[in-house]
Amino acid sequence: xxxxxxxxxxxxxxxxxxxxxxxxxxxGREYYAELKDYDENQCDDWIKENVIKNLDGNHVVSKEELxxxxxxxxxxxxxxxxxSDCLAYDWVLFNDIFGHAFTIPMNIYYIPFDICTLxxxxxxxxxxxxxxxxxxxxxxxxxxxxxDAKVIKECYDKLMRG
Length: 162
What we know:
Order of helices and strands: EEEHEHEHEHHH
Distance between the termini: 21 Å
Strand content: 15-25%
Radius of gyration: 15 Å
Largest sheet: 6 strands, mixed
CATH architecture: 2-Layer Sandwich
Strand order of the largest sheet: 4-3-2-1-5-6
Oligomer: single chain
């Protein structure tokens, strides 16, 4: 099962903390959560304006609760292939949810895949507006993890069709 995910976090630095995570599988099954224990002191004005304002507050969990919920969510699949976009921080934060790269659920393939690399291979400039590329007419809020996961899925689907 291909799963597309995105995270929002407190900044592009080594001590960043997870703010939210959005996941959608290839069939449209979704998961979204916001963390209640991210480091608010790391949020600069850009993060506050572009990420924090897009949080909906409907499902707020601790990191421990997130780990339990994701373990259950992923248990529905025999094998999981993870796709993200510019995934350097996303993948480190994903592994951190489970404590370590070696303790992610066993059904999740330990090598993640990056939509940027797929774009490059397919001859598409990876530095494009993802929503425009995916022809998503309904514009939502960039920097909402679930919306961004949906955009990644649509980009993947378009790349594989063409």
